[in-house]
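Quick log. Single chain, no ligands specified.
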Amino acid sequence: MVFILLAVVGERHWLPALWLYLPQQGWLLPLAVLTPLCLLFCRKWCWWHLAAVLWVLAVHMDFRWSSSETPSGDALSVLTSNIGQRKTRTLWPFMKSEQFDILALQEAWRHERAMSRENPGFFAAGMGEFVLVSRYEIKNSGFVPELWGKSGPAGAWFEVDYQGTPIVVYNIHLPTPRPDFERLRGAGFLAELSRGGGIYSKEVRQRFQQSMDERAELLRKLRERLDKEDRPFFVLGDFNIPSGGYLHGLLADKYTDAFAEKGRGYGWTFPGQTRNPLSLFGPWLRIDYIFSSVDWQTLDCVVEPRQPAQHRAVAAKFVLRKPSGSPE
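-> predicted structure:
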């Protein structure tokens, strides 16, 4: 019942929204007490515990088993990364291993020239924090007007001439929910209990819910724009929304999530390094995505290996489908 609540209600209520952002391995913590007791008094119940472990790790946490495909034609390699709070050179090994054709960066203020210099022969364009580096000519760009929030633009678009076909890359960075979580936490859950602050404050919870509602409205406006888009497109970047929730479904229900389609493992991208033993001191959220329109066939999707960075990059390979009725 709880897992259904997370997927169906998700960010539309502050409590399941909070659960979505927490390490999902935490659902297994009660077994640390219950399993030893069952081993002593009722061993047959341990089979149920095993089933619970498999359900959480494989189903609820959405472990992927996909295999990559060999393209029948030219493949397009697309890479996205929020490079805030990381040294750009740590991204270079992943960039080179993936041999990208299109690279979308967020929080990349003043990186346009540097990325162009480091990738001779490529085109580069920047719109505020959003930078696109492309093997193919970038014809035009602009901010996405529907994604203009309180803190400024949350997305930019770039039109690329891909082998004679105009395609669009929507580079997205939705507002972070970190300040909302900090207000919920306050000085600590136990410390706030006595004075009714933090998560116990109705006002704080309402502000948290308002923030989530605003994020949902931005996604609905983005989807309305994408529904009208008649060119093949990618919409990618740092969405700051966890997979499996209501907000993720607003896009995943209509467009292809590259990792969900062709990824392997969990695909976690944030936070890069932690002190959380539940996540083995690594990330536990998938909030960086590459979505594509139906014009693209997804061949493969991988997440950057362990790095001392706030976000891990995501790379995917695609092939442009031939229009129906076109000659082979």
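The mean pLDDT is 89.
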